[in-house]
Amino acid sequence: MKLKTWISGMVLALATPLAMAEGTGLYGALDIGQSDIKDACNTVAAGQSCSKTSTATRLALGYQFSPMFAGELALLNGAKSTFTGTGLTAEKKADFQLALMGTFPMANQLSLLGKFGFTHSKNTYNEVVGLNVNNREGSGLTLVLGAGVQYDINPQMAVRAQYETQGIDSDEAMITPLPNEGKTNLSILSAGVVYRF
Asked: Staple partner for 76: which of 12, 33, 46, 95, CB 3.0–4.6 Å?
């Protein structure tokens, strides 16, 4: 009997902090949207066409360490620009994001989102000239800022929409030449689902 009482007491002692920490814990997220590389098509010549938008996907794992703040690690893929008529393709691959996420309740289950963090990206640049293919790679670390809204469907699931932007330069994005000393911005508008474990 004493053993059962001791076990019950231990379970209650461990469960109490978890109950008090409601709104915290691990979560996963999947976002899908559209990326846009500003100024990527400013140098299009006659007879050429350019696309500076593409589908972007983000797979994220986060930890909500308080009801208002979370840390999020994400794999982002999809930023791409293509020049038709030159055989040139510039693509950002394997972007890893580490960000602080802020959740600010508004009304009922609706909240505003804020994002501040960094993105480390690996980029490729491919150009077909005749029968030759020129390949080049680069990488960079940039600041990312974002804002959005989130709606909690239930305690486990939520949907969210975000807009974020990060600075890139011509060497990192593999796009040349660019105005403003080769600097431009990558923006992403996305919508996704969040699942709390």
From this structure: 95
pTM of the model: 0.71
Of residues 173, 180, 189, 134, the one with CA closest to residue 40? 173
Give residue-wise pLDDT tens across range 1-34.
444 454 444 444 434 444 334 568 999 999 999 9
Topology annotation, domain 24-196: Porin (2.40.160)
* pLDDT grade for 180, boundaries at 50, 70 and 90: very low
What is the 3-class SS of the chain, one letter each residue? CHHHHHHHHHHHHHHHHHHHCCCCEEEEEEEEEEEEECCCCCCCCCCCEEECEEEEEEEEEEEECCCCEEEEEEEEECCEEEEECCCEEEEEEEEEEEEEEEEEEEECCEEEEEEEEEEEEEEEEEEEECCEEEEEEEEEEEEEEEEEEEEECCCCEEEEEEEEEEEEEHHHHCCCCCHHHHEEEEEEEEEEEEEEC
